[in-house]
UniProtKB/TrEMBL annotation:
The lineage of its organism: Bacteria, Bacillati, Bacillota, Bacilli, Bacillales. Residues 5-130 form the VOC domain. PROSITE patterns: VOC (PS51819). This is VOC family protein. It comes from the Bacteria. PANTHER family: BLR0126 PROTEIN (PTHR36503:SF3), BLR2520 PROTEIN (PTHR36503).
């Protein structure tokens, strides 16, 4: 059986410009493509993009789910740091720039130092580092 490769991840947004500003100004992503209903960022590894629900509805011949209001968590992105110290520093920086302060970094039982923050669309993401042995 042939497997597929995950090439990209697209976040759906009600307000593409607002969410794109967050990923650019707070998280430091560089914009490669910027259109009214679609923004794509430079990223090594998996492509990250934001697309309006209205454009996805148009692209899918009016598929009903793109007209529905989203409630609750839609996706969690996990941002890995090189060290626990970097997790603490970046978490504080993100929150000072407008990220929602959900859970400050803590040493977790699974061997990571992890914090959780929110973006303007209500998605909660983690920032973490593997703790030294």
């Amino acid at each position: 059986m042939k497997t597929v490769k995950l090439e990209g991840l697209t976040l759906l947004a009600d307000d593409v410009a607002r969410l794109a500003r967050f990923y650019q100004e707070v998280l430091g992503f560089t914009i490669l493509v910027e259109e009214e209903h679609y923004v794509e960022f430079s990223n090594s590894g998996v492509r990250l993009a934001i697309c309006s629900k209205s454009l996805m509805e148009e692209n899918t011949n009016g598929y009903f789910s793109f007209r529905e209001s989203r409630k609750g968590q839609a996706i969690e992105l996990n941002f890995q740091c090189d060290s626990p110290e970097q997790v603490y520093a970046l978490y504080d920086e993100f929150v000072s720039k407008g990220a929602i302060d959900v859970t400050a970094p803590q040493i977790k039982s699974w061997g990571h130092t992890t914090g959780f923050f929110g973006d303007p669309e209500g998605n909660i993401h983690s920032i973490f580092a593997v703790n030294p042995a």
